[in-house]
């Protein structure tokens, strides 16, 4: 059983998480996970949290609330990760379902709706992986599903945001209420 729950109240839980951050990206936890992106920073700059331990996510799920998404040219991501990864990200006004097996590969995307896509869930059951969204965290709608493309028996979770090039006002990504029921 995954057993990972964090509402991000108080200090970072160092038994669950490690910071994954460019030293210039501000990652803080004032009652939620906030990633303050760096204005006018050339190149890529990312920050967020990654789990310290891996877990078996077969027949389980993970969900997180996307409270605030940074500007359109920035990136906000929730992913299952091993040497490859699958996940969601919000980029250029789109909610993207993707995988990485060497390179970032978008699988499908829909126009990002901050209400309908407020809570994102990755769920595995019966050898199928489901990318789902919800406005309230109770009723989920499917965006995409497929046979497991990665081994989910030993998975880490990453929550992060970043930029690819200099932006005057990239904004702040805000995550909340991660759970793995």
> How much of the residues is beta strand, in percent?
over 45%
Helical stretch tally: 0
Q: What is the number of strand segments?
A: 15
Mean pLDDT: 91
Task: Tell me, briefly, the overall form.
Answer: globular
Termini distance? 8 Å
Radius of gyration: 15 Å
Helix content: under 10%
Task: Characterize the biggest β-sheet.
Answer: 8 strands, antiparallel
Give helix and strand order, one letter per element, not per position. Answer: EEEEEEEEEEEEEEE
Poorly predicted residue ranges: none
Structural class, judged by helices and strands?
mainly beta
Summarize the structure.
The protein has 181 residues and is mostly beta strands. The chain contains no helices and 15 strands.
Q: Which features would summarize this protein structure in a list?
A:
single chain; 181 residues
Question: Which helices and strands appear, and what pairs or packs with what?
Answer:
Elements: E1 5-6, E2 17-21, E3 26-28, E4 33-36, E5 45-51, E6 61-68, E7 74-81, E8 85-91, E9 94-100, E10 104-111, E11 119-125, E12 128-134, E13 141-147, E14 156-163, E15 172-179
């Amino acid at each position: 059983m995954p057993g990972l729950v964090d509402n991000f109240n108080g200090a970072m839980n160092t038994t669950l998480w490690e910071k994954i951050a460019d030293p210039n990206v501000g990652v803080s936890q004032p009652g939620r996970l906030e990633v303050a992106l760096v204005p006018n920073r050339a190149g890529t700059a990312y920050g967020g949290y990654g789990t310290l331990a891996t877990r078996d996510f077969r027949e389980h799920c993970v969900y997180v609330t996307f409270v605030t998404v940074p500007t359109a040219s920035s990136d906000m991501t929730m992913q299952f990760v091993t040497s490859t990864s699958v996940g969601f990200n919000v980029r250029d006004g789109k909610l993207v379902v993707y995988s990485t097996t060497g390179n970032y590969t978008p699988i499908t995307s829909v126009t990002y709706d901050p209400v309908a896509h407020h809570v994102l869930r990755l769920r595995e059951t019966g050898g199928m992986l489901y990318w789902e969204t919800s406005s309230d965290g109770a009723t989920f709608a499917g965006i995409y599903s497929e046979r497991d493309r990665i081994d989910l028996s030993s998975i880490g979770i990453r929550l992060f945001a970043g930029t690819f090039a200099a932006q005057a006002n990239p904004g702040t990504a805000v995550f909340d209420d991660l759970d793995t029921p």
